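Step 1: inspect the first sequence and its C-alpha cells.
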Amino acid sequence: MRQRRAPISIAPPVERAFLIAVDTGKDAGWPAVDSLEELASLARTAGAEIVGAEWQQRRHADPDTYIGAGKARELLAAKVETGFTLLIADDELSPTQQRGLEEILEVKVMDRSRLILDIFAMHARTHEGRLQVELAQLEYQLPRLTRLWTHLSRTGGGIGTRGPGESQLETDRRLIRDRIALMKARVDQVRRSRGTGARARAVGGVPTVAIVGYTNAGKSTLLNSLVGSTEVHAEDRLFATLDPTSRRLKLPSGAHAVLTDTVGFIHKLPHQLVNAFRATLEEVERADLLLEVIDASDPHWAEHRATVQEVLEELRVDEKPRLAVANKCDRPNAAALIEGAIKVAAATGEGVPELRVELEVLLQRQGVAVDLELPYGVVGEVEALRAKTGIQVAYEDSALRVTGFAPAEVAKALHALKRRAIGRVL
C-alpha cells in the first residue's frame, strides 16, 4: 500500500519585522509612538510578524542612517535577541539611508512608503488598480535602482541599444523610465475613460457623491449600507478596499445619486500614490458632494481628519461641499460628539436612513431652483428627467408644472424644452 506524503509547503517564510522611528517634534499632533502603532498595523497587513520596535527623539533624521550610526549598531543586539529579518522605518528613507542601515545590520530595510506600496500591490484586483500601483512602484524604485531591471534588457536588444560607455545601471534606468512612460500612458487612458463615464452621468442629471476618509474608517461598509447591498468588499483592516467602486443610491424622494467609494487616505501617504492614483482620485474632483467618513471609535480620529484634509487640499477639492459622518458610533469607546457630523453605525444600519435624508437635502442645495410650465407634448422627456432627479411634476389643466431643485445640466435641459415649446407655438 502506497503511503501518501504530506504536501510540501511553498509559502514564503513570515518576515520577522523590527520597527524604528525618529521623532523630530515637527508633527506634534502625531507622536512617534502612535505612528509606530499604525506602522505595526501596516506591517501585519502585509504579513509580517512584529518582534520589536524603537523610537528616538532627534533634532532631525540622520542623513546617512536615519537613526544615527551609533543607534544602528545598537540594533545589532536586538537583531541577535529577536532574530529580525526585516527593518521598517516609519518615514521615507533616502537611498543613502537605506544602504547605510543595510550595511550595518545586514538585513532587508524598507520604509513606510515601500510598505504601503506593497500592501496596495497585494490588494489591487482590477486592471486599473494594478496599473496605478505598478506606476507608483516604478516611480518609487527609480532613484533606488541597483541592478534590479537587467532582465528587461533582453526586450530592447539589438542595434542602437548598446551605446558606448553606457553602464548597466544607466541601461536599467533607461528601461525603467521607458516603463514609467508606458504606465503613464495607460493611466491617462483610464482617466479619459472615466471622464467619458462622468460626462454621461452629468448629462443625465445624476448627482455624484464621493466617499472619502482615512483607511479602515468603514467607507465600504457605509456604501453597502446606504445602497442596501453586500457586493462591495469590506473588511476590518487597512486598505482592504483599493479599487474604486460606484453604486446607484435611491434617495428618499425617489431620485437617484451615484455613490463612489475611493481609496483610503493615511498619514504620510506616499506622494507616488497620490500622483499614480490621480485618475481614480479625479472621481473626488468631479463629485458634487464629498461624504467624509470618520472612525469615531479611533482615539486618533482628529489626527486622521487632519490627514484627510491635507490630501483634499493637495487635490484642490477642500472647498467642495462636504458632509461628515461619524461611523462606528455604537462602539463603547466611540467619541461622544464630533461637531457637525451625523452619527451612524454602518455595520448595523443605525443612523443610515437619517443620513440618506441629509444627503438629499445637501444635494438639492447644490442644484438649481426650477419653476417652469411645460406643454404635455414633452411629458415623456420630463418624466425621464424626473426619474433621475428630485424635481416635482404636477399635472395641471393646461400644462405640466415642474418645480424643485435640479442639477445644472437638468435645469439646462428643462429650459431647452421650454424654448423648444415656445418655438413651436411661434
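Step 2: inspect the second sequence and its C-alpha cells, then contrast the two.
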Amino acid sequence: MTAADEGITGTSTEKRPEFLRLIDDCRKGKIDRVYTKSISRFARNTRDCLKNIRELSSLGITVMFEKENIDTANINDELMITIMGGLAQEESTSISQNIKWSFRRKMKNGTFSPICAPLGYRLKNKTLVIEDCEAEIIKDIFQQYVNGCGISRTAEYINKKYGDTVNISYSTMRYILRNEKYIGDSLLQKFYTPDIMGAEKIENKGEKDMYYIENTHQPIITRETFETAQALRRERFISKSEPVKYPFTRKLECSLCGNHFQRKVCRNKYYWVCQKHDYSASLCESNKITEKSINEAFIRLFNKIYFNYTELFLPIQESLQEMIVKQTTGSKDIIELRRSILQLKEQLKVIATLHTKGFLNEAKYKEQSNEVNSRIKKLNKDIRLLSQSDDTTLKDIEILIDHFEKRENIMIEFEPQEFGFLIDKIVVKDSILEFYVIGGINFKEII
C-alpha cells in the first residue's frame, strides 16, 4: 500500500506529482489496493475521479474511501462515485475561490506582487527592477513607433538591430506598446480564470474589476511618449475599422500566405494585391491582379451558372434531401447521442431515489439534477446541430435555385449586389480565381 498526495494542490490532477506517481506505480503492477482518507483527497473533480477509478478498475485495483465508507470492490453503481466526486469538486472549487479572493483583496489594497516581469524588467524581492540592456530595446520600440513606423516595420527594425538579444513578433509588439508597466504603473487583473473546472485564463474585458495603481516601480519611458503611442494606436485602429468600401474587400484571399488582398491604384488603374506581398515582395510571391479582370471573371462565372443552374444544383439538392432523411432516422452519431440521453435519464431516476432515501439533501439533489438536465439539454442541442448542418447547406442550394429561376437575363456589366449575395470568398492562385459560392460550392475561372 502507498499513500499519495496530501490534497493541498489546486483543481487539476496535473499539479499533483505524488498522485501521478501513485497512478504510475499502479500501472507498473506495484500496487494491489489503494486506501484514501476521502474522495476529496483522491480527486479534485468528478471527471478525474471517474477517469482514475475506471483505469484502476481495468488494472484490477480497488479503492477504499474511508470517510465516505465506499469500496469500489463492492460498489455497483458508478453514479454514487459521480455524486461523491461532485462533492470533492465542490470542496476543490471552494479552495480555488478562496485563493482568488485573496489575490483580489491584495490587488484592491495595492499589495499584490507581480508574478512575472515583462521585457525590460527583472523581478527582485517581488519588485520590478529595470534591466538596462532590455530597457534600451523598449525605449527604441516606442521611439520608432511614435516617429511614424507601424507595428510590423518597428518589429522588423528591432529584430534586425537586436537579433542576437530578442526576436519580437507582431503580437508581442502590440503587447509592449500598450503595457502600462513601462511608465511605472500597474493594471491588475488584466486576465482572470472563469469559475469553471479546467478553464484557462482569458482576457478581462470588463467581466471582473481591474485595479490601476500608479508608481509601483521605476518607469522606462515617459508618460508623454506612452500617451503619444496610445493616441497613434487608437488612430490606426479606427482607420482599419472603417466600413467596407469595395465589393472585393476581405473577400480576396491569397493561396500562398492566406492574407487578404487590398486595393491599390496606379495610373488610374485599380489593382488588388496581397497585403503581405505589398509590405515586402520577399514575404509572398503572389502577383497583383487588375480589378477589371476580377469583374470579368465573375461575369463569366455568373452567366455559366445562369445557363446551367438546374444541372448544377438540382442533383445536389436531391442528394442532400436523401442524406437528411437518412441522418435523422439512422445516423450513428445521433443514435449514440440518444443512447447517452437515455443513460442520463436513468441517472436522474437514481438521484431521485437517493434523495428520497435521505442520501442527498435538497440542495445537493437540485444541484445534481440540474447538472444532469444541463447535459441532456446539451446533447439534444448536438442532435439538432447534426441534423441541421446539412439542412443549412440544403437551404443555401434552394436559395441559389430560386435566385437563378427568378433571373430574367444574363449579366452584361459587373453587379456588386449579385457578387455580394452569391460569393463568400475568392482564393487567388496565380492566374486562377477560385470562387466560393454560398452553400460551399466552388468554381474556378482563369484570368
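Step 3: confirm your contrast with the notes below.
The mean pLDDT is 79. The chain has 13 helices and 16 strands.
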